[in-house]
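Table S2 (text version). Query chain:
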Amino acid sequence: EIPLRLVGSEMCIRDSCFCPLYEREHCPGNPEYINSKGRVIKSCMHCTFPHEAENYDIIMQFLKKKAETEK
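Corresponding structure-token output:
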């Protein structure tokens, strides 16, 4: 059994989140770019965008477009 910590959109499990916008180069959230082991990686640790109910439609539009381009 995996304990859940629900935050807003219920995407968090065990203090880890999957953001459906992570792959976007220019996402509407507020990611930070950090150096880790010689690589620059996108960190969304402090971003609350996917957890705010008013952003649901934006996320769904992105996912719909992504699904259409992957057909």
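Notes on Table S2: The radius of gyration is 14 Å. The beta strands are 12-13, 16-17, 32-36, 39-43.
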